[in-house]
Amino acid sequence: SRLPSEHPLRTAGTDRSPMIRAMLGDRPEHPPVWFMRQAGRSLPEYRAAREGTNMLESCLTPDLASEITLQPVRRHHVDAAIFFSDIVVPLKVAGLDVDILPGKGPVMGAPFNSMERIAELPEVPDSAFDPIREAVALTVEQLGSTPLIGFAGAPFTVAAYMAEGGSSRDHLGPRTMMYRDPEAWDALAGWVSRVSAQFLSAQIEAGASAVQLFDSWAGSVSERDYREHVMKYSAGVLSAVEPYGVPRIHFGTGTGELLVAMKEAGADVVGVDYRIDLDQAAERVGRDTPLQGNIDPALLDAGWGVLQKHTMDVLSKGKAAAAHIVNLGHGVPPGTDPAVLTRLVEFIHES
Ligand code: 1CP
């Protein structure tokens, strides 16, 4: 494998951690758990660390990004860290006019909605990702045998922000572009595919033991459009990192109809959102595929009894799959009481 000889999978024993073993299809002593958005606004120590530093600057300041990545591991004893960064960080690294505004998410100076604009996109040298390598290296040094999960945005989701110039509900920008100007769509999605692969490779080379490709908004396309206009760009990212041999998770929301195609794109683990039960997901993708998910984030604030019962149901339905990595069906809501997450981890570990 292309993995450096000093990598934590080889030297720190992350390969024997419950998290990585589950991703490879095993059922360790206790079900491993991490939470999407475990680092972030639900934690007072995160708000304190971020005070006065804007989001993208925080992501590109290695010691700060590393500290924020470690916070939820210390507090909740989750089985993995997820690298603190954002899916638009590669766009910033590429020198594009992008920012992340509080309460709004990513915003572009101007949308990439025509061939003229898209033709301006630069090739990015791998060295531009050095702050990312540095933050990952600092982090894995502290994590020991707990694995770090690296991540990147999938081409459709990142291109949706670029084509629209910011957040949107229906993602009409990219979905129209696929048909109105397929060459422009190909150029845009192809460019994102390359920078997302560079972003993931930098994280793996610096010490990430697994990666997740986030296609959060893939659920807004039909299976036919996914297979015709989206899948090959995601497959490009996943195949670019295949030679490293680290497990690759593929996640999106509203993807019940896309799970099979998302697996076929080259995933080792399929992430399932809260809209479909894990036993049904296992039926669709095949029982030999490890699944990740899918506690409904809405239930974190519904009272412990309700959450506990729901979690038991998720754990039980997860037995239909080859292996189960426990997670939420989407990110931790910012208003979540962190004590609930700590208690939930404890409960899952005792199950
Ligand atoms: O703990 C972790 O999970 C690591 C941190 C992380 C991750 C994995 C952040 C920090 N962002 C992401 C990925 C990301 N960014 C996704 C995929 C995951 C998902 O679906 O939740 C998406 C869609 C984005 C884009 C984005 N960035 C949004 C969503 C906006 C929308 O269109 O609805 C937002 C709000 C951001 C900003 C952001 N990223 C991360 C944090 C902690 C924040 C909030 C920034 C702040 O403190 O103001």
Automatic annotation (TrEMBL):
Quaternary structure annotation from Swiss-Prot or TrEMBL: Homodimer.
Enzyme nomenclature, EC number: 4.1.1.37
Annotated site residue numbers, Transition state stabilizer: D86
Keyword Lyase set for record: yes
Involved pathway(s): Porphyrin-containing compound metabolism; protoporphyrin-IX biosynthesis; coproporphyrinogen-III from 5-aminolevulinate: step 4/4
Family assignment from sequence similarity: Belongs to the uroporphyrinogen decarboxylase family.
Protein's name in the database: Uroporphyrinogen decarboxylase
Uroporphyrinogen decarboxylase (URO-D) domain segment(s): 32-41, 149-165
CDD domains named in the record: URO-D
GO biological process entries: protoporphyrinogen IX biosynthetic process
NCBIfam families: hemE (TIGR01464)
Organism: Rothia koreensis
Highest taxon listed in the record's lineage: Bacteria
GO MF entries: uroporphyrinogen decarboxylase activity
Places the protein is found: Cytoplasm
UniProt: substrate binding residues: R37, Q38, A39, G40, R41, D86, Y161, S216, H330
UniProtKB keywords: Cytoplasm, Decarboxylase, Lyase, Porphyrin biosynthesis
PANTHER family found in the cross-reference section: METHYLTETRAHYDROFOLATE:HOMOCYSTEINE METHYLTRANSFERASE RELATED, UROPORPHYRINOGEN DECARBOXYLASE
Substrates-to-products reaction catalysed: uroporphyrinogen III + 4 H(+) = coproporphyrinogen III + 4 CO2
Chain's role: Catalyzes the decarboxylation of four acetate groups of uroporphyrinogen-III to yield coproporphyrinogen-III.
